[in-house]
Structure formats: C-alpha cells, structure tokens
Amino acid sequence: MPASQHPSPALRDCVYGQAVGDALGVPYEFRARGTFECTGMVGHGSHSQPAGTWSDDTSMALATCDSIRATGRAGECDNSNGSLMRILPLAFAGATDDEVRAVSAITHAHATSCEACVRMVRVARGLIAGEGPRGVAGDFVGVPASQIRSGGFVPDTERAALWCLANTSCYAECVLAAVNLGNDTDTTAAVAGRGRAGRRVRHGLDSRRVARCAPGEGRYRGVFVLEANEEDRRSLLTARRRTS
Fold this sequence. Notes:
By secondary structure, this protein is mostly helical. The chain has helices at 9-25, 56-71, 97-105, 111-128, 133-137, 154-166, 171-179, 185-198, 207-210, 230-243; strands at 211-215, 222-226.
C-alpha cells in the first residue's frame, strides 16, 4: 500500500470492528465462561482500565498497518494467538500465503500459528469479497458452545472466532457472544469482530457509528466510548437475549 493511499472503507471497518470487540473483552479477560455476562462497553474489570480501552491486539494490528503504509509491503515461538491478532491488514495488502507466514513468524514461527494466519486472511478476503459469514464458517453452524474453547492457543481462537461468525446474525451479537465465551475475551472478540465488520454489516451494533475514538497515551493506545442511539440499544438488548 503506497504511503499516500488512504485506507479503504472496508479496512477501516475491519480495524474498528477489531478494536471495539477488543475493548469489549478487555474487562473480562481470563475470566471463566459463565462467571460474567457482557452486555456492553464497561471499564475496570481484569485490568482496571477505563471503558473502551483496547489491548495489544489492536495496537499490533495498527502497527502492521503503519508498516505496510510506510514500506508498501509486509515485513518478515510459540502457538499462542499473538500473530493472529495482528494479521488482518495483510488481507488488504495483496500478501501471498508465504508473506502471511513470514509476518506471523516475526513472533510466532511454528506452522500451527503460520497456517492459522493464512486461513484467517483467506476468511477475511472472502468476507470482504461478499461471501456470507456462514459461507466462510459454515462448519461451525449449530455447534454447541460447550465444544468451543476460548483460551490463548491459536487454534482455539481461530475456531472460537469462526463459531461466533457462523452462529450470530449481526455485529453486536457476534462480539458479545465472543466475549461471553470467557477466558481470552479480548482477542476472541477482536478476531471475530473484525470479521463481522469486514462484511460491513450495518444492522445491529455498527462499530463505527456507536464508538468514538478518544486518543490515549501513545500512538497505539486509545479508548472507545460507546455512543449508542436508541436503535443501537435495542440491538444490544436483542443480542443479549440471543447470547444468554
């Protein structure tokens, strides 16, 4: 991506979708499923941060965007989800599968992590091209939540995000379902939320319309403040009923 090129609307939607899902999950990170219920943007919790604070998940995705913008290309462990959380921008950069693997390998070089990143970039490109969430994640339709793990192991995050895409009908329902799976709440919601936003779904909770970014401390820190109107509040209540 040339330095002078503005991000496409779809990329902006995906980044917003990731950041809002991330911020929803931060207060509940590491809490077990069933011990809480997320119904909207709140603060404090696991990390005692203000409502709307995103985590390293979004910070690293933004850094990847900056790297692509500055150089026009993608740059060159373990099997946690650290590379999956930041890989999204490569879906918009024309990166090959090998380039996606190389970017994963900066921090997570094992084939398990690299291949998960390749698969999720393909999922993102399918959604951007207009394929429906169930088209990219149909194998997870109707799978009980009890069969979905939501910890930091990269295959678990990948499966949990796809499960949320396949079994929800709007952005609000998707990110709330992701957070309410528990454990690695921020990353699961970040990965699932960017997928829903990649579809630019305009019903339910529109991540760009209901969240205002207030600059935080440093380039990659920030806060989202929920600014839901009455229609959004009704969508949130509907999503709450469907995910409870």
